[in-house]
Amino acid sequence: MSIDERTEQDVAALRERIAADSLTSRRDYLRLAVTMSGGLAAGGVAVAAGVFHRHGSGTAPPKLVAEQLPPGQSVAFAYPGAEDRAVALRMADGTLVAYSSICTHLACGVLWRADRGEQGELYCPCHEGVFDPRTGAVTAGPPPRPLPRVLLEERADGIWAVGTLESGEEQP
Ligand code: FES
């Protein structure tokens, strides 16, 4: 076999390998695209169907949140259901509020950060979402709606969750 013949065979073999590789990568790309769009579609259906828990207007049996809550402190709890994550906080001036801690953007956990802003912030670390602790309104980032409010009552034996409001709904 001459050097030229071997070179031609090598080139042909190389072309076959490249063709096989590009077929494989095209197939892999298509598989990935189908998997991703399927996942997005399933996520959209789950959100539309209310699979992810959201607080809504309504009443539920009162639930003890904490016996006390000093200024600047927060407490995490679940209300009205076990999956309905919420946070109660007492601001430095004594104002007591509570909200769903499920971010209205993509449902990450919202945290009370007393060290941020002038009066503290409700902060979502996923995409830098920020909510006003006095109202639950969005003050920065991508969340599309305010945090739904959890209604509290301060009684002799502690702080109780007594109801919930829809996102943006005013307290009656
Ligand atoms: S999930 Fe909270 S800002 Fe995106």
UniProtKB/TrEMBL annotation:
Gene3D superfamilies: Rieske [2Fe-2S] iron-sulphur domain (2.102.10.10). One of its GO terms (molecular function) is monooxygenase activity. Keywords: 2Fe-2S, Disulfide bond, Iron, Iron-sulfur, Metal-binding. Its cofactor is [2Fe-2S] cluster. GO terms for cellular component: membrane. Iron-sulfur subunit of the cytochrome bc1 complex, an essential component of the respiratory electron transport chain required for ATP synthesis. The bc1 complex catalyzes the oxidation of menaquinol and the reduction of cytochrome c in the respiratory chain. The bc1 complex operates through a Q-cycle mechanism that couples electron transfer to generation of the proton gradient that drives ATP synthesis. Residues 61-161 form the Rieske domain. InterPro entries: Rieske_2Fe-2S (IPR017941), Rieske_2Fe-2S_sf (IPR036922), Rieske_Fe-S_prot (IPR014349), Rieske_Fe-S_prot_C (IPR005805). This is Cytochrome bc1 complex Rieske iron-sulfur subunit.
